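Q: My collaborator sent me two sequences in one message, no labels, and asked for predicted structures for both. Can we handle them in order? The first one she listed is below.
A: Yes, handling them in the order given. First sequence, followed by its structure tokens:
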Amino acid sequence: MASFNIELSSKPIKGKKEHLLMLRITVERKHSRVALLYSVKPSQFNNNASDFNCVRANHSEHKKINSYIHDKIALAKEIVEKFEKEKRPITSNLIRTELSKNNQRISLLI
């Protein structure tokens, strides 16, 4: 069973006080992380959010970012379901790789 969590990167972006948002994928106690497109200040991040609304309302684009987070987690869950249907092994690295492929496809479409 895979689980997903949103966290801040450990180091701030160079020259800013913001940290990248990271999607942490856990499968059988092994983690992989995927960098997301957005960054926030630690004061704008709620790591205890139960419904993945991790960006607080004090960020000007909190609705947009939280919606993006929900979409990424939904995509990751779809990948897990696809692997289960195909009876493929599920690891955090495989999910991360598949998410990266989907990111490239989306950026090509834009």
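Q: And the one she listed second?
A: Here it is, processed independently of the first:
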Amino acid sequence: MKKIIQTTYTEQEFRQLIREELTAILIDNNKLENKTSEDENFLTASQAGDFLRLKRGSIYNLINQNKIPYQKKPGSNRVLLSKKDLWEWLKKEGK
């Protein structure tokens, strides 16, 4: 059921209301965009395995032996691997 709300705004108040709503939408979209691009720079162990052409178990073995750069997601046990760090590791290892 739709609710109809009738109110009276001056043109200036109405424009300000629209500005505020659009600003909130743009801020939310920017946060989402930044989160997405940030997430795209990190890989899960499975994705890193695909990226390096290794099995997921091999990735975890490298992680457990501290032979590959990784990070734990704050507040969780989830392991993330940075694409940039993996490229640098590959260059260093000469692979």
